[in-house]
Design goal:
Distance between the termini: 119 Å
Number of strands: 0
Strand content: under 5%
Helix content: 55-70%
Order of helices and strands: HHHHHHH
Keywords: Signal
Radius of gyration: 37 Å
Largest sheet: none
Length: 199
């Protein structure tokens, strides 16, 4: 037992002396470091996982806010473009839209990277906090314009209404089947109608 402790302590002392010997000599008090010696960089702060998680989460939320604001700005420019008649102003608006769309693409790519980092580096945080960051898809400017146009929204609404509510069937006289059912229901008493007795 004693020999084991002696061997471990000797190996520790040997390794520590080798490590000290490999270090660069420290400058004396008041002396400038030698030219061959490297200037020591300030020690890096080791951040805990909580700090780095908070930083990444803040980055994700900031990027999401940037993306949403860029989308609203592009939508404002689209409505302004639709209302403007001056061709020079329209060209200026299109250039602004292109620049904003380029920034939007870069922000979305960075958002996706940070979101993936957050999802896969800190999976236990996602389970405890029930966080969900949705994937943001970038639409082209043309898609945004068609989405914003009034005529397109009316067409989509009309299609939804037609799908939801079928056209009423008409008989030979031009009356709908639903109108005929109402008339027949009014004339014939049903089981749920109260019976009125007369004396």
């Amino acid at each position: 037992m004693y020999s084991l402790v002696l061997k471990i302590s000797l190996s520790f002392l040997t390794l520590s002396s080798v490590a000290v010997a490999n270090e660069a000599p420290a400058a004396e008090h008041g002396e400038a470091p030698k030219e061959g010696a490297k200037a020591e960089a300030p020690p890096k702060e080791i951040k805990s996982s909580e700090d780095s998680y908070a930083v990444v989460q803040a980055r994700v939320q900031a990027l999401e806010a940037k993306v949403r604001s860029a989308e609203t700005e592009i939508q404002k420019l689209i409505t302004e473009k639709q209302q403007t008649k001056d061709s020079a102003r329209v060209a200026e608006i299109i250039n602004q839209m292109k620049a904003l769309h380029k920034d939007l693409n870069t922000n979305v790519k960075e958002y996706d990277q940070q979101r993936a980092l957050l999802k896969y580096r800190y999976p236990e945080k996602g389970q405890t906090e029930k966080r969900e960051y949705e994937r943001i898809e970038v639409k082209s400017i043309e898609e945004m314009e068609t989405q914003m146009s009034l005529g397109n929204s009316v067409k989509k609404t009309l299609q939804k209404v037609r799908i939801q509510y079928e056209k009423p069937n008409k008989n030979e006289m031009g009356h709908t089947v639903a109108e005929e059912k109402k008339k027949s229901q009014e004339s014939a008493p049903s089981i749920v109608d109260p019976v009125i007795l007369k004396k």
